Amino acid sequence: MQVIALDKKHQHGTEGFSKPCGGLLAPDAQRSFIRDGLTLPVDVIANPQIFSVKTVDVAASLTRNYQRSYININRHAFDLWMKSLIPASVEVYHDSLCRKIWREDDKWHVIFRADGWEQHITARYLVGADGANSMVRRHLYPDHQIRKYVAIQQWFAEKHPVPFYSCIFDNAITDCYSWSISKDGYFIFGGAYPMKDGQTRFTTLKEKMSAFQFQFGKAVKSEKCTVLFPSRWQDFVCGKTTPF
Predict the structure, then answer these.
(1) What region holds the FAD-binding domain (predicted)?
(2) Is 171 part of any domain?
């Protein structure tokens, strides 16, 4: 079977697209690596490694620390390492963009842009791992709407004397949650908020967190992306006969 993979990121380096992500590898993900016999290379590991999460209930003004076994990683370096594991038999197009998909004559047709020009391929199977704004999902289920939130996070120079992870709950801001992560000399603060006024809610929460000794300063960079917030089992759609 011939396999083609499309990815928006470059093959190497820090230029181009990178996913907005705090970068913590959860225990379930760690178990997947154990099953596959994989070990993480040192260049994807971030500093420091912290073994608890500070959980903040803003409304109740309560803070508690809970033991958790997350691995602090550089998400972009992690993604590039994962791509390097793709077998040589797979044709990978880096820095590519899928433009259109459709079904015709029992085949999937894909138009994508890579290497400066558009290409057209056909395939028996189509697998979309293309995130909250998935083109594959929209094509398969055009009438299926899943609640969308905007994830916003900012990076700051680390000012806290003791680095920490945190998980923040404030129902006045969002019915999802917010987070912070200390990573490689930076303090990352973010959360998922309703699409309509997400930026305002994010700013309001930052102001509230001063009461919990969170220190921000001037943002080094800001990131945002769309995330899905399923509210029922029917929101989980996995595919049909040949697309997934």
Answers:
(1) 110-147
(2) yes
